[in-house]
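> example.struct
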């Protein structure tokens, strides 16, 4: 029987250069860790873009004879040069009172304190990447749910017997939970769960499945404009700054030669 060997063609991407500076595959591999993305290809693209922008700004520093100076603590010479270049060319106006007020009025739903929940739970653990174990954990959590719906007075004892969270020692009680204190998926679920009842389905998170009891819910309240103004001004200032830097980079790109990477097609936010 004739066996025909199959050969896979390995396509080597063209080298990336900014003027005479080459960005190697190894450079991109080292940079990838700083650019989380849905997949590795996107992470590499973001890493390459960040390196292109960095080399582009350093090339412009060379063109304008920008030298390093002692600046912020822990700042490298390259970071110092880029900072000076941007400070020289980027002017960010102070947000006006009317700008802050307009943003506040358009985003009143965000200008609230977070809801707070007093919560107890029973955690049935399961690794996030094992479908079989997660299916088994879901089945077990559903069984606990059904038993607790019939006998809610058993929650404390069942938490001690079945939960894998350290809170099992206090009957599964987590205390008062506010925004940012727990896993985002768990936090999001709390706002839609009934108070004083065992919901029909456990809450799924990366840690496994949670049988949850919300004891109390304290809804957030509007925050007055005066208390928000400083944060709004900081947000608007940073928004304008990023847009100005993006425009400056496009101008600088026209003064230099970029090979192997399309900067205009890379529309991800400016990498710091």
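> example.seq
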């Amino acid at each position: 029987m004739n066996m025909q060997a199959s050969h896979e063609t390995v396509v080597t991407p063209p080298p990336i250069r900014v003027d005479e500076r080459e960005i190697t595959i190894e450079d991109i591999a080292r940079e990838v860790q700083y650019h989380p993305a849905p997949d590795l290809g996107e992470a590499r693209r973001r890493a390459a873009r960040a390196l292109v922008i960095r080399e582009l700004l350093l090339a412009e520093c060379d063109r304008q004879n920008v030298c390093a100076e002692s600046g912020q603590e822990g700042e490298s010479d390259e970071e110092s040069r880029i900072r000076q270049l941007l400070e020289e060319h980027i002017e960010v106006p102070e947000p006006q009172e009317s700008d802050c007020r307009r943003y506040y009025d358009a985003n009143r739903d965000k200008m609230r304190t977070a809801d707070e929940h007093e919560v107890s739970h029973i955690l049935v653990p399961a690794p996030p990447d094992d479908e079989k174990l997660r299916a088994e954990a879901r089945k077990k959590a559903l069984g606990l749910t059904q038993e607790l719906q019939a006998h809610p007075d058993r929650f404390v004892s069942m938490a001690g017997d079945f939960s894998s969270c350290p809170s099992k020692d206090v009957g599964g009680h987590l205390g008062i939970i506010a925004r940012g204190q727990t896993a985002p998926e768990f936090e999001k679920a709390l706002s839609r769960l009934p108070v004083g009842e065992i919901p029909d389905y456990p809450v799924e998170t990366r840690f496994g499945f949670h049988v949850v009891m919300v004891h109390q819910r304290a809804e957030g309240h509007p925050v007055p404009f005066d208390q928000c103004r400083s944060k709004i001004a900081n947000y608007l200032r940073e928004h304008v700054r990023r847009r100005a830097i993006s425009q400056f980079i496009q101008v600088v790109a026209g003064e230099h030669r970029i090979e192997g990477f399309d900067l205009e097609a890379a529309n991800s936010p400016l990498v710091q």
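> remarks
Confidence is low (pLDDT under 50) at residues 268-272.
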